[in-house]
Amino acid sequence: MLEEIAIATKNEFNETTIEVAPENIVTALGRLKFDLKFERLTSIAGVDRFPAEPRFEVVYHLQSIAGKQRIRIKARVPGDNPEIESVTSIYRAADWYERETFDFFGVKFLNHPELTRIMMPDDWEGYPLRKDYPITGTRY
Amino acid sequence: MAIDIGITTELDVQRDRERHEKRGNRTMVLNMGPQHPSTHGVLRLLLELDGETILKAAPDIGYLHTGIEKEFEVKTYQQGVTLTDRIDYLAPLSNNLVYCLAAEKLLGLEIPPLAQWTRVMLAEFTRLNSHLVWLGTHAIDIGAMSVFLYCFREREEILRVFEMFSGQRMMTSYFRIGGLALPHPRGWQKRVKDFVDIFSSRVDEYEELLTNNRIWTGRTKGVGFISLEDMLDLGVTGPMLRAAGLEIDIRKDAPYSSYEKFSFKVPTRTENDVFARYLVRIEEMRQSLGIIKQALEGMPSGSHQADAPGIVLPDREKMKTQMEALIYHFKIVTEGFRVPEGEVYQAIESPRGEVGCYMVSDGTQKPYRVHWRGPSFGNLQCTSKMIEGTLIADVIASLGSMDFVLGDADR
Predict the structure, then answer these.
(1) Which domain range does residue B360 map to?
(2) Which residue is closest to B231 within chain A, CA to CA?
(3) Does residue B65 sit at the A interface (CB-CB below 8 Å)?
């Protein structure tokens, strides 16, 4: 089902990871939800691979309740202009997780209903979970 | 008209004003929280009211954000266990467990049966602890004062059990990567047995106070409805789904830490309201008690830690007689242990729902990235959907039925 858009497929520790290009993420998740019955989006996490390029990984965890299955979808976005399409149109649960990833990594989710910071104050500077963000200090 | 609502940013005020003007100035914006007794933490709710009806509700979280995910990246794997306690102060051992399981999956460690069973037993004690605090505070919010006192009486006993095992009442850190922190304390069977003997009748007591109480049923029946489809779509997990008739429990669906060896039922209800969630949690307490009883009776013997030199701290005795043990001890304490490269997602059933730990390792002694999928974060997302269109008096009951801990949502 995802063969033609999957860039890489990996099976480690009994967990399947499928990597797709960022422009295909909505297609991929849409197929997984409606055709393969992955009803739940468990979480979205960001990973910063600094200094490698493309720098950021956006990781989607999905679960199929009937099939008792989990799957991980991954998309890599570049460091200079991290942008990816929002999947809120498919899973409403993505709303806060995308805001969180935006807040911590600065990855912009296009067409997100309200992409603002969720954990940090609205006027915060910098993205705390990036690898070049210091662990201590008063100002970024 | 600008509304002065305490801690706000300019952006908030502007958003409020726009919304207010759009509705023809008929509505009122009410700021509930961030310090409100019923939110048990610092949740801020922006409610837009038309009379007593809520038109729009916008939860605002992040007041308890402490950067725990960032902190994981500068601590060694074993040190990270202590951070997991602090994420959710009502379910410390569930959080310890999911973190340890994730790391053990990466390491490929085999945990001895004694440690696994102890983990199950204490994880169920954690569930009881969390449900008791939930029941007490939820009842207080709705107006039943005395239930709180009864619940805390039993909770005290559970905290004593935790103290006996780990030396700590709340921030236990008792599960470690590779097993348990300490061997079983002397006389633990008696303390657990004393608890098991009385607790069943104590649950009856709570039920006597609430289940047929007309005020309680009046405040909870038919309140806080949200359809199952919406809940699944919005990322809700745990007892809320079970109260909507979906039999979902990770302990059954993907057993971990030898849960497959225990027999228990997954309670479900179909009413899908605050009262159903209450009944589900009450029944969960009885089931947890059953699991504790089975663990007490069938506790296997053996070692409390895996046979994995280089990961598990060596015995004190061996350190004084064997050179390798001393070297391992020195290396583990000073630099930690290396974890093979890879990524795992481990999910377990915490008292509030699915707690997931996504751990990425780059082959060093410290996690490259840990993402914490807290159940409260997922559950809170349905707030707007659940309370919009209902009365303001029901907000407290609806919120309480979600059973969130803000530390868990904000991390």
Answers:
(1) 68-307+338-405
(2) A93
(3) yes
